[in-house]
Each structure stands twice: as structure tokens, then as C-alpha cells.
Amino acid sequence: MSRGKESLFGAIAQVNDVISTHVRLRLDLIGISSATFDLLSAIHAADGRETQAQIGQRLGLSRATISEAITVAEKSGFVERVASSTDRRANTVRLSAAGHRIIQDVMTGLSELEDAVVAKLRGKEATTTVDSLRKLTSEIERFAGAAKN
Length: 149
Fold this sequence. Notes:
Elements: H1 8-30, H2 34-46, H3 52-59, H4 63-75, E1 79-83, E2 91-95, H5 97-118, H6 125-148
Antiparallel strand pairs: 1-2
């Protein structure tokens, strides 16, 4: 980074912080923690195709921790465990109607925020910004991949 110029990653981090704060405020209104939302998001992304152990692994949680987290979410009415069709010893997890409503509520809030922000941009600024961020993501992934080797 050259002196006198704003850090690109610093600006991206600021945007991330503002979005994260918006999400946390929305979660506070709903009455759930960020950890619960992270779990519900992971279950939503898995769409009933992953066992609770696989979801836990993706989240970096031990088997005991993911089991406890899913039990709490199940007792809260956010998720349902279903016996796996491929492994009788395992459970898949899916969102209940209440869990889907939480995901939808947060996504609606983010969509409203994005619409308000994009409305302030001129011409092709939004498209150019998205294209630039995709290019940055690709280059960072390429750089990180090269660093692994």
C-alpha cells in the first residue's frame, strides 16, 4: 500500500463492519444470536443434503458442539432433525418454517439496505463496483492458492 492512499482492504473491512452491524441489529430485534443465525444459515445452505456432522465440520465445530447447538435450535423450533436416507446412524438437519422465516427476514433486511445504498450510486457505479469486487475476489483466491503451493 502506498502512503497517502486509502487502503482498499481497509475500505472493504469498513463496509463489512457496517453490514455486520446492520445484521446484528436485525438479529437483536428477532431475538437470536449471531451464532444461531450462522447455524441456521449453514443449514439453509445445506438444504437438507448434509448431516449434522458435516454441517458442524463446515462451521469448524466439534461433534459435541454441533449436536448441542442443533438441539437448542430444535427446542427453539428453528430446525428439524431427519434420519439420513443414506446412513441410519446419522441425521440430516433442515430448517423449520420458523427457521425459514428468520432467514427470510434477515435477507429482506439486507435487500432493503442494498436497495437504499444502490439508489445513491450514479449510472453504472453499482455494476462497476460488483465487477471490481468479483475481480478482487478472484485475484485473492488465486494468490491464496499460489501461496499454499
